[in-house]
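I have been asked to look over a protein record a colleague put together. This is what I was given:
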Amino acid sequence: MSDHRKRILDLLASGKINVDEADLLLERIAQKASKSEPEIPAQPKETPPPGPPGPRYIRVVVSDKDGEKANVRLPIGLVKAGIKLQAIVPEVARVKLKDRGIDLDVIGAMKPEDMVQAIADLTVDADSRNGEKIRVYCE
């Protein structure tokens, strides 16, 4: 792996860039590697008008009567990356998932921004028989 690719992935992992930005940078590195002549930089994208910031994390909290057992915070960028990664799931696995009601083709057809918007108001609260409470929400 090149130093440039590693640096981009480190920036993505630390949250300094999002999945779309990392994808664009990785594509440019691939283009430069395949071309011997200098590349003309692309025009910068027009910045969308500022709006309310979307969620940055999905939080999963599991607790029982004795206190907190698990508290996990997942970056929303992971959801975007997952949408892209579903394209490489083997067909055998896709069929088995579809048999269980999970259609990856529907997920793959969604734009990452639409998926983030869809889960922005997500809140799941569940109580188990043994007193555990599970809460999933965006923040």
